């Protein structure tokens, strides 16, 4: 690992880490949490959509633009050298977060959606043909459905679906029938954004490996944000995730892929930086990861993502997870006391990440969300880009409270109180 310039060594990314998990102390790191909304202190419970950013990340972004802003891998000048060093150091940091041992296997993307589209386009085009099969589950976010539908339409491949039971778990007994010698790719979510289900991906990967030589992609948008991830231990081929779900900036994410697959894949987009040699009629490609990173990348975003991972890495991960689970259990218990509530997803809080989706008989999710917003409580309402899940339960939408490590029991209480107002208004 190259040493950072001396001025960066003392820069914000290296700031002191909190000594132990203390939610109030951690909350102080997040300026956006300390504001009033509609005259009430903000309760931010829309973390599955995006998380707030700690000062450590904001400082790094500001520091980068104030001191080091330059294009990477090109300029032979000091600022470009610094920018390149920070950008590649961030790649190593983020690769480490998901247990990757070779950081060249981590491609910068715009986020999970972009990473999955990259695989569907660049890998799919050479490996999926007419009559081949793509295995998805109905639990998937549209980001892990539509790119495959586009590929299936182009190639004549067939999509098959793993169904879920009413607790939001995959029906694994069906897996044997769904896998065949025609299965080319299995693309599944690590953690569901719509129900919070932590999926048994390791078991599924083992069964896929036994039955087929299909490639396995995991949508890690929620997984990388809430679980400890080790792509090698999971045994997958691709893992796509987004910085903004885990304290980092928007518009940047990572796609990890096995080196041998990345090496033989055609480029996704053409342009500057992804070539080795350009001639009149043809070009040759740079090696990975640059082969998949055409054009000027989101340099500040990548560096900010590295800072987010540095921030998270300094926290006691086990305690954060335990806190999130305890909060989810508490919130579910309190919510159950409300009249006409239906909570979706696994009944056991241990089996879900921070997501608690629900409906009330008395009011539409959009009305619920509008009324609680007036009390300063931010939740999401809608289909959560998971219309197949909504169809499974026969509902058009749900309200979704999603917790992160900086939330408190008080946040859950404020939500329940605000929902009491909803029931009064619509009662
Ligand atoms: N998959 C899941 C499970 C998600 O939660 C999200 C974000 N809601 C995505 C994919 C898409 O992520 P992004 O919008 O950052 O590309």
Low-confidence stretches: 1-19
- What is the percentage of strand-forming residues? 15-25%
Please describe the biggest sheet, giving its number of strands, its sense, and whether it closes into a barrel: 7 strands, mixed
Q: What is the count of helical runs?
A: 16
Mean pLDDT: 94
The oligomeric status of these chains comes to single chain
Please provide the count of β strands: 17
Helix content: 25-40%
Distance between the termini: 62 Å
What ligands are attached or bound here? 4'-deoxy-4'-aminopyridoxal-5'-phosphate
Note the overall shape.
Answer: globular
- Radius of gyration (Å): 22 Å
From the helix content, strand content and strand pairing, which structural class follows? alpha/beta
Strand order within the widest beta sheet: 4-10-9-8-7-5-6
Keywords summarizing the entry:
globular; 16 helices; 7-stranded mixed sheet; 4-stranded antiparallel sheet; 39% helix; disordered N terminus; binds 4'-deoxy-4'-aminopyridoxal-5'-phosphate; 427 residues; 17 strands; alpha/beta
Write structural notes for this entry.
The chain is of the alpha/beta class and 427 residues long. It starts with 5 loop residues before the first helix and ends with a helix. Strands 4-10-9-8-7-5-6 form a seven-stranded mixed beta sheet, sandwiched between helices. The protein has a four-stranded antiparallel beta sheet with strand order 13-14-17-16, with helices on one face. It is 39% helix and 16% strand. Helix 4 (78-97) crosses helix 12 (299-313), helix 5 (112-127) runs parallel beside helix 6 and helix 13 (317-335) packs parallel to helix 16. The structure holds 4'-deoxy-4'-aminopyridoxal-5'-phosphate. The site of 4'-deoxy-4'-aminopyridoxal-5'-phosphate has 14 residues, from helix 5.
């Amino acid at each position: 690992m190259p040493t950072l310039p001396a001025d960066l060594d003392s820069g914000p990314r290296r700031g002191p880490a909190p000594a132990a998990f203390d939610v109030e102390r951690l909350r102080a790191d997040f300026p956006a949490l300390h504001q009033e909304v509609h005259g009430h202190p903000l309760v931010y419970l829309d973390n599955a959509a995006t998380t707030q950013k700690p000062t450590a990340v904001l400082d790094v972004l500001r520091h980068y633009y104030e001191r080091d802003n330059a294009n990477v891998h090109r300029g032979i000048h000091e600022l470009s050298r610094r920018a390149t060093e920070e950008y590649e150091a961030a790649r190593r940091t983020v690769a480490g977060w998901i247990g990757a041992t070779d950081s060249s296997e981590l491609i910068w993307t715009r986020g999970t959606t972009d990473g999955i589209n990259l695989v569907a386009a660049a890998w799919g085009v050479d490996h999926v043909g007419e009559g081949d099969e793509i295995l998805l589950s109905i639990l998937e976010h549209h980001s892990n459905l539509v790119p495959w539908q586009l590929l299936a339409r182009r190639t004549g491949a067939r999509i098959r679906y793993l169904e879920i039971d009413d607790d939001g778990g995959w029906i694994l007994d069906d897996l044997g029938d769904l896998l065949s010698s025609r299965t080319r790719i299995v693309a599944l979510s690590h953690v569901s954004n719509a129900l919070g289900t932590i999926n048994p991906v390791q078991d599924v990967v083992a069964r896929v490996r036994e039955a087929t030589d299909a490639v396995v992609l995991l949508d890690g948008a929620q997984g990388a944000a809430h679980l400890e991830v080790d792509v090698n231990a999971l045994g997958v081929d691709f893992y796509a995730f987004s910085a903004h779900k885990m304290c980092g900036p928007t518009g940047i994410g990572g796609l990890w892929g096995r080196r041998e697959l990345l090496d033989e894949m055609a480029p996704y987009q053409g342009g500057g930086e992804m070539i080795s040699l350009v001639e009149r009629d043809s070009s040759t490609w740079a090696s990975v990861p640059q082969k998949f990173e055409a054009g000027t990348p989101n340099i500040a975003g990548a560096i900010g993502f590295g800072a987010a991972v540095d921030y998270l890495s300094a926290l006691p991960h086990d305690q954060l997870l335990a806190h999130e689970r305890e909060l989810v259990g508490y919130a579910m218990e309190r919510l159950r006391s409300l009249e006409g509530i239906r909570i979706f997803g696994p009944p056991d809080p241990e089996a879900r990440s921070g997501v608690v989706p629900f409906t009330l008989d008395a009011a539409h999710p959009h009305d619920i969300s509008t009324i609680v917003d007036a009390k300063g409580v931010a939740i999401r309402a809608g289909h959560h880009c998971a219309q197949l899940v909504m169809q499974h339960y026969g509902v058009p939408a749900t309200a979704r409270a999603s917790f992160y490590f900086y939330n408190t029991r008080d946040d859950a209480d404020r939500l329940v109180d605000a929902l009491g107002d909803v029931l009064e208004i619509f009662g």
